[in-house]
Write a structure and sequence with these properties.
The complex is a heterodimer of chains A (113) and B (326). With 113 residues, chain A is an alpha+beta fold. Chain A contains two helices and six strands, in the order αβαβββββ. Chain A is 27% helix and 34% strand. Chain B is α/β, with parallel strands linked by helices. Chain B has a single domain (77-322), classed as P-loop containing nucleotide triphosphate hydrolases (Rossmann fold, 3-Layer(aba) Sandwich), CATH 3.40.50. Chain B is 31% helix and 17% strand. The longest helix of chain B is centred in the C-terminal third of the chain and has 17 residues, at 266-282. The chains are: A alpha+beta (113), B alpha/beta (326). Strand 6 of chain A pairs antiparallel with strand 4 of chain B.
Chain lengths: 113, 326
């Protein structure tokens, strides 16, 4: 359940931004979560609703922007899309894929007031 | 709670004490500490945020506005991890992060490793468990220094805990620091502690498809130790298939088959540590040589040669890892 730690980090980022920019309430947060990252979006929403209680982000909406997994095949050199770590290259069947995208865990933006 | 800055780490304990003092001596860790914990923030020091007027997905023209953040959720952990990495590099220390399920044999592996290297290499240990100091006591019984981190309800170590533990451990220059993570094949994968390599220990009693079931961990690791091979005659465990699965998740992962209790394969493992320790001593301050970011292909000693020569050369993407200012 490392999503709890990640949710706490999201809240810290929101609190830091609030201090710097003088807002009092966070209404929504957009997260960019890669398909190959170690984050389960539903667990993230659940944990965030728990850690945000009695904070400036209480009841804030968590919007997850999914980023598809992508990889470079070291065998056929094609850029391919992958669903999970351990997928084979859909072009040539090789397992030698270097992941190039889909590991993201980012806070993109927030709606605040 | 930390007396320097009030950072709350929940139920985390170091050798039974709260994680209050001392603080990481590294000045950048100190800066990051100020950034992270409420009360002494330094505006603009870490967050590169800026605000913009409400745009397309803002629901109304109320006082609401959009604030662009563009920051890694683990960015603060990574600031600590980079400070730890610089510290290891500055002192020529090889650091390894041992990860596995509970019961894979990590502590036995560590005690055997320490005993075998006793006359050649100083090893100290950071132990991570939710509760008890049993593992640190097992390590200390070998004569090695150990600090126990109890994470309470926490399911993994993070780089901030390790920074505090390093202050207490004060490892010798040119030595090896082994970090035994909380037994958990999921959560520790995401957290860079500043180690040179994650080493995943999989025992043959666990089932050969673990690399496919828990791919994050096998993807993040540089090396897989297949432990308890002395039990293979009593089990239906397909070693070749397990290694194939590991390579499917991480083509660059090195594999060693060992039995920590009987001694099989230990020479190869010890030689790999000694090679890594020598490299760390020979290039003190060069963190890019000693550490690599998780998620990249890696070729540690012992990696499968199938990958050699074909991997596109990729420098570290993180400027912190390229610094020579440690």
């Amino acid at each position: 359940m490392h999503e709890m730690s990640l949710a706490e980090s999201v809240l810290e980022i929101a609190e830091q931004a609030a201090r710097e920019q003088g807002f009092r309430r966070v209404k929504a947060i957009w997260l960019e979560i890669g398909a190959l990252s170690a984050v389960d979006p539903d667990a993230m929403r659940f944990c965030f609703s728990a850690v945000a209680r009695n904070s400036l982000a209480e009841a804030a909406r968590l919007e997850v922007v999914a980023v598809p997994g992508s990889a470079q095949c070291l065998e056929c050199a094609k850029q391919v899309e992958v669903q999970t770590l351990g997928d084979l290259c859909p072009e040539c069947g090789s397992h030698r894929l270097e992941i190039t995208g889909g590991m993201e865990m980012r806070v993109k933006e927030m709606e605040v007031e | 709670m930390c007396t320097t800055c009030g950072c709350g780490q929940g139920e985390t304990r170091l050798d039974g004490h709260t994680m209050n003092d001392p603080h990481p001596a590294d000045t950048r860790a100190e800066e990051s500490h100020q950034v992270r914990y409420r009360g002494h923030a330094q505006p603009g020091s870490l967050l590169q945020s800026r605000f913009t007027p409400a745009h397309a997905h803002a629901p109304s023209l109320s006082a609401a506005r959009m604030v662009q953040i563009e920051q890694d959720i683990l960015g603060l952990n990574n600031v600590y991890a980079n400070a730890n990495r610089r510290r290891f590099a500055a002192h020529g220390i090889l650091s390894l992060n041992l990860v596995s399920s509970p019961g894979s044999g990590k502590t036995t592996l560590l005690t055997r490793t320490i005993e075998s290297l006793r006359d050649r290499l100083a090893v100290s240990v950071i132990e991570g468990d939710q509760q008890t100091s049993n593992d640190a006591e097992r390590i200390r019984a070998t004569g090695a220094r150990a600090v126990q981190i109890n994470t309470g309800k926490g399911c993994h170590l993070d780089a901030h805990m390790v920074a505090h533990a390093l202050e207490r451990l004060a490892p010798a220059d040119g030595s090896v620091v082994m970090i035994e993570n909380v037994g958990n094949l999921v959560c520790p994968a995401a957290f860079d502690l500043g180690e040179a390599h994650k080493v995943v220990v999989l025992s043959v009693t666990e089932g050969e498809d673990k690399p496919l079931k828990y791919p994050d961990m096998f993807h993040a690791a540089s090396v897989m130790l297949l432990n308890k091979v002395d039990l293979l005659p009593y089990l239906q465990f397909d070693v070749a298939r397990c290694i194939e699965y590991a390579h499917r998740v991480n083509p660059g992962i090195g594999v060693m088959q060992i039995s920590a209790s009987r001694g099989d394969g230990m020479e190869e493992w010890l030689a790999w540590i000694e090679d890594g320790a020598r490299a760390a001593r020979q290039s003190p301050g060069n963190a890019a040589e000693v550490g690599r970011r998780p998620g990249q292909l890696k070729e540690p000693p012992g990696a499968v040669p199938a990958n050699a020569g074909t991997r596109p050369g990729r420098p570290s993407l993180d400027p912190c890892l390229r610094g020579d200012d440690s």
